[in-house]
């Protein structure tokens, strides 16, 4: 055991990465199935019970595609770009506390690490658009850069109220600070801004402007196929899971059970179970948005960010600071 113990972090990390990849593949089926239900149609129902093996069929089809790289592209950057998108999102999960004892790393700057990784993820999309030497892909990459840079500002500001209340940038400390009440009760405005910014950061409908099919063919991944195309999809679904997990951690108590169930048998459930239930709720919320809302124009998206999201995030931060200093809101030592 003495020889195996140093390997425990690597084993835990490998298990978490494998689980995340499998979850991302499973979410492809969940999304298509749920959209089918909400739109009053069947959805995938041929491969396996209820179409549950549809993701496996899709994966085999993608792996069977030719690994085509256009001659006019910048070959090295073209191949590198999809790996940047997938790896940066996977690295963000290193600071996620899945339960009291499950998590790769408990950094005291975990929140800043999350912001850094989400900032780096945009390079994959931008480089994909630029290296493709395709006008539609280039426009998609430029949209992604402008969209991400804009909404990163509001995402960061929306989380500062939580930092003021918890007194720490550590995600585990933020969860533990919600022992006596979730932050959503006082940070509902910050939660709203964070969710909108998270949707924009993950390029999901209604903010999927970088890959708008009706305007840009497929946007930044127009020239991609095979495994490289699959990596972009992996990064997108991992991004949805990541934003859902961060929403749960920052505003909904993470792996902690709801307060009204504290004296019931449900409170005895492992923290990982509560965490998964909450994250699944927000993933379904992301999917429902895709079926419900139309896509805005790109100028409307940026105007909404700077004219609406920025003032709301500043009002939330200022209000939280005032209430914290006056003692109305409790929290850790900042």
TrEMBL record:
Record's subcellular location: Cell membrane; Membrane
Q: Name one GO molecular function term.
A: oxidoreductase activity, acting on NAD(P)H, quinone or similar compound as acceptor
Give the EC number: 7.1.1.-
Q: Which GO annotations describe the biological process of this protein?
A: aerobic respiration
For this UniProt record, the keywords arranged alphabetically read as follows:
Cell membrane, Membrane, NAD, Oxidoreductase, Quinone, Translocase, Transmembrane, Transmembrane helix, Ubiquinone
Q: What is its main location?
A: membrane
Going by the entry's taxonomy, the superkingdom of the source organism is recorded as Bacteria
Key word Metal-binding present in the record?
no
The family assignment reads: Belongs to the complex I subunit 1 family.
| Subunit structure, as described in the record | NDH-1 is composed of 14 different subunits. Subunits NuoA, H, J, K, L, M, N constitute the membrane sector of the complex.
- Protein's job: NDH-1 shuttles electrons from NADH, via FMN and iron-sulfur (Fe-S) centers, to quinones in the respiratory chain. The immediate electron acceptor for the enzyme in this species is believed to be ubiquinone. Couples the redox reaction to proton translocation (for every two electrons transferred, four hydrogen ions are translocated across the cytoplasmic membrane), and thus conserves the redox energy in a proton gradient. This subunit may bind ubiquinone.
Listed name of the protein = NADH-quinone oxidoreductase subunit H
Gene it is expressed from: nuoH
């Amino acid at each position: 055991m003495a020889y195996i113990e140093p390997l425990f972090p690597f084993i835990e990390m490998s298990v978490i990465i494998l689980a995340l990849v499998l979850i991302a593949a499973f979410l492809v089926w969940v999304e298509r199935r749920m959209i089918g239900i909400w739109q009053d149609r069947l959805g995938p129902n041929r491969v396996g019970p209820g179409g549950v093996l549809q993701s496996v069929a899709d994966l085999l089809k993608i792996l069977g595609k030719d690994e085509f790289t256009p001659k006019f592209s910048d070959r090295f950057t073209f191949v590198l770009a999809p790996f940047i998108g997938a790896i940066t999102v996977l690295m963000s999960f290193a600071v996620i506390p899945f339960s009291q004892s499950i998590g790769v790393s408990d950094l005291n700057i975990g929140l800043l690490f999350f912001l850094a990784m989400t900032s780096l993820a945009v390079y994959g999309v931008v480089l994909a658009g630029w290296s493709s030497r395709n006008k539609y892909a280039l426009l998609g990459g430029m949209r992604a850069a402008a969209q991400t840079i804009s909404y990163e500002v509001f995402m960061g500001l929306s989380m500062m109220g939580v930092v003021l209340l918890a007194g720490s940038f550590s995600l585990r400390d933020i969860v533990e600070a919600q022992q006596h009440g979730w932050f959503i009760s006082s940070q509902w405005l910050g939660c709203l801004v964070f969710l909108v910014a998270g949707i924009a950061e993950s390029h999901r409908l209604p903010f999927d402007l970088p890959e708008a099919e009706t305007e840009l063919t497929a946007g930044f991944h127009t020239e991609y196929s095979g495994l490289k195309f699959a990596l972009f999809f992996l990064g997108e679904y991992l991004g949805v899971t990541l934003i859902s997990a961060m929403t749960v951690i920052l505003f909904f108590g993470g792996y902690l059970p709801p307060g009204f169930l504290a004296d019931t048998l449900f409170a005895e459930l492992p923290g990982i179970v509560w965490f998964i239930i909450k994250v699944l709720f927000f993933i379904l919320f992301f999917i429902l948005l895709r079926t419900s809302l139309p896509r805005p124009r790109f100028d409307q998206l940026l105007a909404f960010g700077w004219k609406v999201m920025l003032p709301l995030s500043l009002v939330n931060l200022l209000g939280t600071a005032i209430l914290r200093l006056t003692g109305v809101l409790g929290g850790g030592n900042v």
